[in-house]
Amino acid sequence: MTTLAIDCMGGDHGLRVTLPACRRFLDAHPDASLLLVGAGEALSGFQHPRATVVHAAEVVAMDDAVEVALRKKKNSSMRVAIQQVKEGKAQAAVSAGNTGALMALARYLLKTVDGIDRPAIAYPLPNAKGGATTVLDLGANVDCNEQHLLQFAVMGSALVSALNGKEQPTVGLLNIGEEIIKGNEVIKRAGELLRSAAAAGDLNFHGNVEGNDIFKGTTDIVVCDGFVGNVALKTSEGLASMIGGFLREEFSRNIFTKVAALAVYPVLAAFKNRVDYRRYNGAALLGLRGLVFKSHGSADDFAFGQALVRAYDAARNNLLDRVQARIAHAKPLLVGPSPDAQPLEAIASE
Amino acid sequence: MTTLAIDCMGGDHGLRVTLPACRRFLDAHPDASLLLVGAGEALSGFQHPRATVVHAAEVVAMDDAVEVALRKKKNSSMRVAIQQVKEGKAQAAVSAGNTGALMALARYLLKTVDGIDRPAIAYPLPNAKGGATTVLDLGANVDCNEQHLLQFAVMGSALVSALNGKEQPTVGLLNIGEEIIKGNEVIKRAGELLRSAAAAGDLNFHGNVEGNDIFKGTTDIVVCDGFVGNVALKTSEGLASMIGGFLREEFSRNIFTKVAALAVYPVLAAFKNRVDYRRYNGAALLGLRGLVFKSHGSADDFAFGQALVRAYDAARNNLLDRVQARIAHAKPLLVGPSPDAQPLEAIASE
C-alpha cells in the first residue's frame, strides 16, 4: 500500500479541484491510500475506504510570505501534509500551494539529504518528441556554483529513472552554445565536473545544450541555475500564452472564422492536447529526506490528478533511495567548498 | 541621403536573399543609397543609380571562429562593410553573417563609446500587444555586473526612442519575481542603480519583470545578462518551433485534416502573420562608435529587408548621437569599478 498526504486546501481552487482528483485517483489505484489534510468539517463528507481525513485548521495563502508559513501558521494543511511524510505515515506529500512556502516548510521539516546543499525543483516540460524534458532547478536557487549543478544533475537522473524507468537518462548542461569553451566561469567548471561524473559512472552526460534543446527533447534532463531556469520557464509560459491568444483571436474574429473553428475542431483539439502542459503537472522537490510534489497553483482536477500519479510513481519506485544512492556514489566529486545553505528568505514564492 | 553598407555575402543564403532585398529597399526609399559589399563579379550585374559596388574578395563563413574573421580574412565583405561606417562612407552597416564575428569586427574597427565597457545586442521580440519588446543583451556578455545592466538600459532606451519615436520608453529588469528583494546580488544592485538612474531622469524604469513579461509587452525594453537573454531567446525559438510543428502535423495528418487546413487557410495565414518574427528582424549592436545591424542568418529577402529598414531608421534618427547623449547624461552613475573588457574569444558565434 502506498500512502500519499494531500494538502487539500492549497492552490488557486482548493477543495473544488483537489477532492475530485483524489476520488478519481483512488478509484484508479486500488493499492493506494490517501491522507486528506485540511479543514475537518469540509472534508468529512468525503467517504472512501482508503481515505483518511487529517484535520488542519489553517491554510497557507498563495501570497503568504515564507515567514508566515514557517512561523505563524503552524497548523496549516501544507505543513501537516509534509509532517505526515516526516512521521512515516505517508510516502509522499502533494500540494498546489505557494511554492516558496512549500519549499521552506519541506526543508525545515524534512531536512536535506547528506551531500545536498540546496533542494531543487524539477519541472517536466513537454517536448517535440512527445515526451517531457525534466528541467531543474526551477526553484529559486540563484547564484549556483558548479557543485550545485552537479547535485541537480544527479538528483534529476534519479527522478527520471524512478518515473520513466530509464536507468541512464541523458543530462544536458544549459549553456549559450554547445562548445566546451562557451559560457561563464561557473558553467565551464560545471561542465568539467559533469564530465568527471560521467567518467565515474554517476550520470550520462550529453554535454552543453541550448535553450531550444529543452523543447526539442535533445536530453532527458536539462540542468541550470534556478535564476536561468525560472526565466526560461516564465518566458515559455508567456510565449505559449501569446500564441494561444493569437490563435483564439483569429478564430473568433467574425462569424466566418467561428464557423471555420467549428469545422476544424477535432484538429484544434488534437493540437491542444499535444501542447497540454497539464499532462505533465507535478514538479518534484528533490534533495529532501522525504518526497514532496508541487502541483501548479492553477491546476484543474485533471492536472492535479497527474501530480498525484507522479508522486505515487515516485514513492512506489523508491525515488528517495535512488536519490540517496546516487548522491552517495557521486560523493567523491561532491567535496567542493560547502557554501552556506541558502537563507529561507531568498526562496521564491510562487 | 542616408547610405547603408550591406554585407551582401553574409547569412545562410547570401546574394540570393540580400540582392532582392536591396533592390526593394532602394525602390521604397528614394533618399537612401547603398554600398553593396562583396564579390565584384557577382555584384556587377546589380544596376541601380543609388547603388555602388564595393569589392571584397573574402567571406566570413557562418561557422568561422572569431579569430579567423579578425586575423585571417582581412578583406571579408563583413569587415569591409563595417569599414565603410568607420570611414564615414556609410551611416550604418547590415550583415546576416556570423554574430560572433560581426560583434568582434565591429568592436575592433569601431571601438566602444565612452562610458561603455561592453557592446550589447538588442533584439526585438513580438509581443501580445502587437508591438515588439526590445530585449538586451542577447549577445554573449556573460557575467555582467550592475553597471553593465545600467548601460544596457540606457542604450536600449536610445534605440527604442530612435526607432519607435517613444522618447521615454519603459525599462524592465528581468528577474525571478517582481519584488525588489528577489534575485541574485547583481540583480538587486542593478535594481538600485536603475532606480537612481530613473530618479536622475536618465530612463523610465518600470521595475522588475519576469520572463512572461517579454511576450506580454509589459515594458518596451527588457534588460538582462547576455547568458540569461540567450537562454530566453533560444528557449522561445524552441517552443515556437515545437508548437508550429505540432500544428502542421495535426493539419497534415490525413486527407480530412488537409481539407480542413485549406478551409481555414485565411485564419491560419493571419495567425502566422501575427507570430511572424521576420517582421522584427534586425538586431542592433549598441555601444559602438558606429551603427551596425545584424539580420538573422536564415533571413529570407523580406526579413533581410526589414533589417535594412531598421538600420535606415536608426541612421536617420541619429541613434548614435542618442546613445552618446544618454550615456553622457548617465555618466555620474556609470563610475563604478571598470571591469576588464570582455576578451574577444568569449564572444559567442551564432
From TrEMBL, chains A, B:
Example of a GO MF term: phosphate:acyl-[acyl carrier protein] acyltransferase activity
Cell compartment(s), UniProt: Cytoplasm
Keyword ATP-binding: no
Signal sequence, renumbered to the chain: none
Any one Gene Ontology cellular component term annotated for this protein: cytoplasm
Enzyme class: transferase
Functional description taken from the UniProt entry: Catalyzes the reversible formation of acyl-phosphate (acyl-PO(4)) from acyl-[acyl-carrier-protein] (acyl-ACP). This enzyme utilizes acyl-ACP as fatty acyl donor, but not acyl-CoA.
Annotated protein name in UniProt: Phosphate acyltransferase
Organism of this sequence: Ramlibacter pinisoli
Lineage of source species: Bacteria, Pseudomonadati, Pseudomonadota, Betaproteobacteria, Burkholderiales
